[in-house]
Each structure stands twice: as C-alpha cells, then as structure tokens.
Amino acid sequence: MSAWTWRLADADGALCEPSRSQAFPTRSDAETWIGENWSALLDSGVEQVVLLEEENEVYGPMGLRPA
C-alpha cells in the first residue's frame, strides 16, 4: 500500500519545517486533509504544496492562496 504525503514549501520553493505532512493511506484522504488545512498551513508560512505518492510527485507545486 502506498503512502501519500504533501511536501510543504514557502513562496520561493524552499522546504518548510516540517517539510512533509503526515502520511495518508489514500490520495483521497490526502486531498481531503489539504482542503481542510490549507488556511492553517498558510498561517504557518506554507505557500505551496506537492502531492507525493511515496517519493513520486503526482502533482504540484500548487499554491495555497486563493486566485
């Protein structure tokens, strides 16, 4: 079974601390989590995220600020 995580970065693409979210058992769980937590992540300095399946980039970078 794959682990899904978000790589967390600032506006310049530098990794934040922590550099990854917790691991999720499914892509859907990971996407639900980002949908529920994007505002708190912005408040902590995270500006963009990349969805990872294990070490493989699935999509991103995706900005967290509303368009």
- Helical content stands at 25-40%
Q: What spatial form do the alpha-carbon principal axes imply?
A: globular
Low-confidence stretches: none
Number of helices: 1
Main β-sheet, in a few words?
Answer: 4 strands, antiparallel
Radius of gyration: 11 Å
Our measurement of the CA-to-CA distance between the termini, rounded to an integer number of angstroms, reads 34 Å
**Quick check: average pLDDT?**
96
Topology order in helix (H) and strand (E) letters? EEHEE
Beta-strand content: 35-45%
Provide the number of structural domains: 1
- Largest sheet, order of strands side by side? 2-1-3-4
Summing up helix and strand content along with how strands pair, one would put the structural category as: alpha+beta
Number of strands: 4
Could you explain the architecture of this structure?
The chain has one domain (4-63). It has a four-stranded antiparallel sheet with strand order 2-1-3-4, covered by helices on one side. It has one helix and four strands; from the N terminus they run E-E-H-E-E. The protein is 25% helix and 39% strand. Strand 1 (4-9) and strand 2 (15-20) form a beta hairpin. The protein has one helix at residues 27-43; strands at 4-9, 15-20, 48-53, 56-63.
